[in-house]
């Protein structure tokens, strides 16, 4: 009788924001088409570590389970990515799971991504409208612009690009590539363009584009293939023009 296949996971755990981290190993039964999420669910169902000791279930975040919500980001075998699309068959064992280091750990693999959401607030990554009455259909966007804007709209605020960026850390206020790309997206929108200068000013403030080191790690790591470096270059040009407009006091 052949020995039953198993999966070994080495998980970096932390009991709370102020607690010291430690590593705990788990061995679970292998099933076909498993992803990292299903492996974590198996541990949650039977929280016994590789030593046979009863332990606490591992904490992580998840939502859609189809790479849309961005909640299940973690570092898998040294690479930040989505755990829902990380298939066990494609990963080298033992599989090492760690929380992203750019964000504060809440517990185990769950992190607080407030830094990223605060960056989106700083650049006003939305289109403000008066909801008191129906404004009717907005202006149409040209098809060629709509196509590349759609690519930017795929951002799911997963935080992987911030984790991969060496300039996003505790010693820097850099807002990160996701927020920069969202400025490009909303400034390209016919209605969003009304607040264009306000968003560019956000990129020109402390922690803005000047902090980008152009390492290009972000575009290589983005799960959705968003052209983040193209957005950064475009916003560099836009902020340069805005600087001239501010200097010369032009309203045009």
TrEMBL record:
<dbReference type="InterPro" id="IPR036010">
    <property type="entry name" value="2Fe-2S_ferredoxin-like_sf"/>
</dbReference>
<dbReference type="GO" id="GO:0051537">
    <property type="term" value="F:2 iron, 2 sulfur cluster binding"/>
</dbReference>
<keyword id="KW-0003">3Fe-4S</keyword>
<dbReference type="InterPro" id="IPR017896">
    <property type="entry name" value="4Fe4S_Fe-S-bd"/>
</dbReference>
<dbReference type="GO" id="GO:0051539">
    <property type="term" value="F:4 iron, 4 sulfur cluster binding"/>
</dbReference>
<dbReference type="InterPro" id="IPR004489">
    <property type="entry name" value="Succ_DH/fum_Rdtase_Fe-S"/>
</dbReference>
<keyword id="KW-0479">Metal-binding</keyword>
<keyword id="KW-0411">Iron-sulfur</keyword>
<dbReference type="GO" id="GO:0008177">
    <property type="term" value="F:succinate dehydrogenase (quinone) activity"/>
</dbReference>
<dbReference type="InterPro" id="IPR012675">
    <property type="entry name" value="Beta-grasp_dom_sf"/>
</dbReference>
<keyword id="KW-0816">Tricarboxylic acid cycle</keyword>
<dbReference type="InterPro" id="IPR009051">
    <property type="entry name" value="Helical_ferredxn"/>
</dbReference>
<keyword id="KW-0408">Iron</keyword>
<dbReference type="GO" id="GO:0006099">
    <property type="term" value="P:tricarboxylic acid cycle"/>
</dbReference>
<dbReference type="GO" id="GO:0046872">
    <property type="term" value="F:metal ion binding"/>
</dbReference>
<dbReference type="Pfam" id="PF13183">
    <property type="entry name" value="Fer4_8"/>
</dbReference>
<keyword id="KW-0560">Oxidoreductase</keyword>
<dbReference type="GO" id="GO:0051538">
    <property type="term" value="F:3 iron, 4 sulfur cluster binding"/>
</dbReference>
<dbReference type="InterPro" id="IPR017900">
    <property type="entry name" value="4Fe4S_Fe_S_CS"/>
</dbReference>
<dbReference type="GO" id="GO:0022904">
    <property type="term" value="P:respiratory electron transport chain"/>
</dbReference>
<protein>
    <recommendedName>
        <fullName>succinate dehydrogenase</fullName>
        <ecNumber>1.3.5.1</ecNumber>
    </recommendedName>
</protein>
<dbReference type="InterPro" id="IPR050573">
    <property type="entry name" value="SDH/FRD_Iron-Sulfur"/>
</dbReference>
<dbReference type="InterPro" id="IPR025192">
    <property type="entry name" value="Succ_DH/fum_Rdtase_N"/>
</dbReference>
<dbReference type="Pfam" id="PF13085">
    <property type="entry name" value="Fer2_3"/>
</dbReference>
<keyword id="KW-0004">4Fe-4S</keyword>
<keyword id="KW-0001">2Fe-2S</keyword>
<dbReference type="GO" id="GO:0009055">
    <property type="term" value="F:electron transfer activity"/>
</dbReference>
<comment type="similarity">
    <text>Belongs to the succinate dehydrogenase/fumarate reductase iron-sulfur protein family.</text>
</comment>
């Amino acid at each position: 009788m052949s020995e039953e296949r198993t999966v070994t996971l080495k998980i970096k755990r932390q009991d709370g924001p102020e607690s010291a981290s430690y590593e705990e190993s788990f061995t679970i039964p292998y099933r076909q088409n498993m992803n990292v999420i299903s492996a974590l669910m198996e541990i949650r169902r039977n929280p016994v570590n590789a030593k046979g000791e009863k332990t606490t279930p591992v904490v992580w975040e998840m939502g859609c389970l189809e790479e849309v919500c961005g909640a299940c980001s973690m570092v898998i075998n040294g690479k930040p990515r989505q755990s829902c699309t990380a298939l066990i068959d494609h990963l080298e064992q033992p599989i090492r799971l760690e929380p992203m280091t750019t964000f504060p750990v809440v517990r185990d693999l769950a992190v607080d991504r407030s830094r990223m959401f605060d960056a989106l607030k700083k650049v006003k990554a939305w289109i403000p409208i008066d909801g008191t009455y129906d404004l009717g259909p907005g202006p149409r966007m040209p098809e060629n612009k709509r196509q590349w804007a759609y690519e930017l709209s795929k951002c799911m605020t997963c935080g992987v690009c911030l984790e991969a960026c060496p300039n996003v850390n505790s010693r820097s206020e850099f807002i990160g590539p996701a927020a920069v790309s969202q400025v490009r997206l909303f400034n390209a929108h016919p209605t969003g363009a009304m607040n264009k200068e306000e968003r560019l000013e956000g990129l020109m403030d402390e922690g803005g584009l000047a902090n980008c080191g152009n390492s290009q790690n972000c575009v290589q790591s983005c799960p959705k293939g968003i052209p983040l470096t193209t957005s950064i270059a475009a916003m560099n040009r836009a902020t340069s023009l805005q600087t001239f407009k501010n200097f010369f006091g032009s309203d045009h």
